[in-house]
Amino acid sequence: MDQPASTPEMTAYGPAERELLRALRDFVASDEAARRATGRRMDLGVSDLRATRFVMTACSRGEPVTPRDVARHLGLTTAATTTVLDRLVEAGHVERRPHPTDGRSKVLVVTDHARNEAHDLLADMHEEMRAVAAAVPADARPALLTFFADLTDVMRRHASGQQARAVPEAHAPGSSTPNP
Fold first, then answer.
1. Looking at residue 166, what is its pLDDT?
2. Which of 11, 30, 56, 160 is deepest in the core (most CB within 10 A)?
3. CATH code at 66?
4. Sites in the chain below the pLDDT cut of 50
5. 114 to each of 106, 137, 155, how far by Cα in Å?
6. What is the DSSP letter of 8?
7. Element housing 108 (H / E)
8. Count of domains for the chain
9. Which pLDDT belongs to residue 178?
10. Residue 152 has what pLDDT?
């Protein structure tokens, strides 16, 4: 069965919507599989890998990141986050350093070892992803960006328990052309 489960109250998916959402599900599944494989190759669990990536991204932006920031990002308690960070420090992926302005706190810094390992594992995949993105025709990009932004907004609102908003007629299921 390739049709999503529905109830009489749910709007039925048309073939075009189903095709887009199936492609998105396939992408999400392959992204998750790639992250798990990267974690295995780096000898990191999912939370460890997410924490490393978070610290790496913050460091590349020049933003200080604290253990509390990592806890919020991972959705873990500070105690559980301490365990994750202890493993990352022991593995040589992250260092704890004194906070530049708060003597009671620490900042986390990704190590060259972690950067080099991530680069070695991911550079080829990132280059292939860049090439795929570059191949998207310029006139298709605005629609793709809107599609992803709108779906991201829907998922974030539902994840946070916010009320669903009314879908504009131009985006209503089954409408093939936007209304002016």
1. 62
2. 56
3. 1.10.10.10
4. 1, 172-180
5. 19, 35, 31
6. T
7. strand 106-110
8. 1
9. 43
10. 93
